[in-house]
């Protein structure tokens, strides 16, 4: 059994894009996560120490976004996934990064990646 924690549509402002114009100003980017984790012990103990503190994850993602300057949303998504997988209880994460203003006539464009903890 795998439970899921999620954060939907976290709005961050960061430098992301291929052109000099895109990298001149921070852009709005939406980040959504699904964190796969066994929450059985947390439910029993009612202690955040037995879960994943999503406030801490959010803060680390905001810090990452504010200090990042990347060309691809794929790179940003991978770095977000790495932050999530640093949490000992996280088994797997699905990260979606969207640029709502990237394409005219499209509500949004982006990527979704899935990363898992390496076994070993």
CATH architecture level-2 label: 2-Layer Sandwich
Q: Given the structure, what is the number of helices?
A: 4
Q: Poorly predicted ranges (pLDDT <50, ≥5 residues)?
A: none
What is the number of E strands?
A: 5
- Which structural class should the secondary elements be placed in? alpha+beta
Summarize the structure.
The protein has 120 residues and is an alpha+beta fold. It contains four helices and five strands, in the order βαβααβαββ. It has one domain: GTP Cyclohydrolase I, domain 2 (2-Layer Sandwich), CATH 3.30.1130.
Give an overview in words.
The chain has helices at residues 20-24, 40-45, 54-67, 73-85; strands at residues 3-16, 27-37, 69-70, 90-99, 109-116. The protein has one domain (3-116): GTP cyclohydrolase I, C-terminal domain/NADPH-dependent 7-cyano-7-deazaguanine reductase, N-terminal domain (GTP Cyclohydrolase I, domain 2, 2-Layer Sandwich). The protein contains 4 helices and 5 strands. The chain starts with a strand and ends with a strand. Strands 3-1-2-4-5 form a 5-stranded mixed sheet. Helix 3 (54-67) runs antiparallel to helix 4 (73-85). The protein is of the alpha+beta class.
């Amino acid at each position: 059994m795998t439970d899921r924690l999620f954060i939907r549509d976290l709005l961050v402002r960061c430098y992301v894009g291929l052109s000099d114009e895109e990298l001149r100003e921070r852009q709005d980017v939406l980040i959504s996560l699904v964190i796969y984790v066994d929450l059985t012990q947390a439910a029993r103990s009612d202690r955040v120490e037995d879960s994943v503190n999503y406030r801490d994850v959010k803060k680390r993602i905001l810090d990452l976004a504010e200090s990042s300057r990347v060309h691809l949303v794929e790179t940003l998504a991978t770095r977000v996934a790495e932050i999530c997988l640093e949490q000992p209880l996280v088994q797997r994460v699905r990260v979606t990064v969207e640029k709502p203003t990237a394409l005219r006539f499209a509500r949004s464009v982006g990527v979704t990646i899935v990363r898992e903890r390496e076994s070993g």
